[in-house]
Write a structure and sequence with these properties.
α2 packs across α9, α3 packs antiparallel against α5 and α14 packs parallel to α19. The chain folds into two domains: about 210 residues, no CATH class; about 210 residues, no CATH class. The chain has 21 helices and no strands.
């Protein structure tokens, strides 16, 4: 039972991480043509709109999808499939109402948000930024429904439809953004319109993802209807179900708000701090675009891996604990932390060491390289903070990580106010590192107290650290050669194609180094590799193959 369940959990997590990898790579690659087409000022407007959207999206779902996946997992483990479907139906109707409310709030609160985010905004600045915010609002109608469907499917540990929908969503989003922006630029529209066209891509990507998930949900509901055709029809009161889920979802929502609230703190403090350094509004907006659209954009890849792992572990832990299988719960917890380290550490090292060629390849300049390098450290601690939050919530410790998150955010806010006027956007990155470091350290201490597992992240991942150090030395040699190339061939570093080639060559050669050392020091075994994204097909063990 344990091995079969563990294999199912590992493969499900792997499919989620693989989908995240594909969708995030697409999201990173499309930055190159987007920034080329709309310019730095419009790019800053584009990212100025997203913190409010992210907060509104999180509040509109209120943690219900994750609470739903936890509830469905618990009911399914006890064979109560009709109850699980009834709960999903109630939540789906509620998500539609919440989505419509969030759409209206974002549409009408946009001006108030801009007055808070921009220091002394005038009419021209408001007119430039407001269309991008309102173009994002329609996505708030569909995404709550999408997240409810994902929660239902993940409650049954059906991760593949959720994974596929993420890829489909990203492909549609990128296609609509690039085609729409190209048309807008050709027609001669300015930054306000091009930024709005770019933000509207979120709604365009949501539509096909919604259709795909709806089909998957219908299929799973039919299967569960056959399994429970002789079970009595449950009589659940919507008010009681929603109240119970609300009690679950409120702390979950607050826990998942860590990233959007951190971005919101940046939106409020970074432009102001930069203008305190003497920058104009346009220059401060451009710098903020570099920080949020480059440094913070790049950490989305390792952080999304952590989120995919965390989304999978919550229903997985709930299922194991509902069955009374503490051993399986412990195995899944340890596997989750080890997988987080195994994926996040090398990604963070590559981001920090290859910051310069990566910056030039993706963003055409070396501006913001320091912030990108610091973003590697941010990604490590934010990933640990996020995954440990999901683990604690899987053990029904909902409010514990919320308190730790609040401590980290207060530290970040205080350091932003102090450091941004001194160090610019690098100061915001340093503040994020310390904020996430404290909250993740507090979360890991709580896990040890709740579960009785004495292992810490360093104890679980020191072998992974050795492998990461080996790959990091290799990447550092590649980066030094890249820097030296400017002496041999003046100006070659400014070539985006050359810089991209260096990044790809560094990753392609450092990957085998990392994997080889990881196997040598037993940071991972072939059975675990068989459940890893992308690599798994090369290490499939016959006993655990699907």
């Amino acid at each position: 039972m344990s091995e079969e369940a563990e294999g199912k959990f590992g493969r499900g997590t792997s499919s989620m991480v693989t989908a995240v990898f594909v969708s995030r790579v697409l999201g990173l690659l499309f930055i190159i043509p987007l920034q080329n087409m709309i310019g730095g000022y419009a790019y800053g407007i584009y990212y100025l709109a997203y913190p409010l959207y992210t907060v509104m999206l999180t509040l509109s779902t209120a943690g219900f999808p994750l609470a739903l996946s936890k509830t469905v997992s618990d009911l399914a483990a006890r064979g109560k499939h009709k109850e699980a479907t009834a709960v999903y139906r109630i939540v789906g109707h509620s998500m539609l109402v919440f989505g419509l409310a969030a759409f209206l709030l974002m549409w009408f609160l946009g001006p108030l948000y801009l007055r808070m985010a921009l220091p002394h905004p005038d009419a021209a600045q408001m007119q430039a930024a407001l269309p991008a915010i309102r173009a994002l609002a329609p996505a708030l109608i569909l995404f709550p429904l999408i997240s409810a469907m994902r929660g239902y499917l993940q409650g049954y540990l059906r991760f593949q439809p959720s994974a596929t929908s993420q890829v489909v969503e990203q492909i549609a989003r990128v296609a609509v953004i690039l085609i729409g922006v190209l048309i807008a630029v050709k027609l001669g529209f300015g930054p306000p319109v091009t930024a709005a066209v770019a933000t509207f891509g979120a709604a365009a990507g949501a539509a096909p993802a919604f259709l795909l998930l709806r089909k998957a949900v219908i299929r799973v509901r039919s299967e569960m209807r056959r399994r429970s055709r002789y079970a009595p029809q449950p009589h659940l009161k919507a008010r009681r179900i929603l109240w119970r889920l609300l009690m679950y979802s409120m702390p979950i929502a607050m826990g998942t708000l860590i990233l959007p609230l951190s971005q919101q703190i940046d939106a409020w403090t970074v432009p102001r701090g930069l203008m305190d350094r003497g920058l104009s509004f346009m220059a401060a907006t451009t710098e903020y675009g570099i920080y949020s659209g480059e440094a913070l954009k790049l950490i989305q890849l390792p952080l999304s891996f952590a989120n995919a792992i965390g989304v999978a572990v919550m229903p997985g832990l709930t299922e194991a604990l509902s069955l009374g299988n503490n051993s399986l719960a412990k195995d899944r917890l340890v596997m989750t932390l080890r997988m987080t380290a195994f994926i996040t550490l090398p990604a963070a090292a590559a981001l920090s060491i290859l910051a310069l060629p990566l910056n030039i390849a993706l963003f055409r300049s070396s501006a913001g390289t320091g912030a990108i390098a610091l973003a590697g450290l941010i990604s490590i601690f934010s990933a640990i903070e996020l995954v440990s939050t999901y683990i604690l919530q899987g053990y029904d410790r909902f409010y514990t990580p919320v308190g730790h998150m609040a401590v980290g955010l207060l530290i970040k806010l205080a350091l932003n106010v102090i450091l941004v006027p001194i160090f610019g956007i690098d100061g915001a990155a340093i503040a994020s590192v310390f904020g996430y470091m404290v909250s993740s350290w507090l979360n890991m201490g709580a896990i040890r107290r709740v579960t009785g597992i004495r292992a810490s992240m360093p104890a679980l991942s020191w072998r992974t650290m050795v492998a990461t150090a080996a790959a990091g030395l290799w990447l550092y040699a590649v980066e030094r050669l890249y820097v030296s190339s400017g002496v041999w061939v003046p100006g070659i570093q400014q070539s985006r194609l050359f810089s991209l080639g260096v990044v790809l060559a560094g990753l392609a050669t450092a990957g085998p180094v990392y994997l080889g050392v990881a196997l040598l020091v037993r940071a991972v075994n072939t059975q675990e590799l068989s459940r890893m994204p992308v690599l798994g097909r090369f290490f499939v063990h016959p006993e655990i193959s699907p």
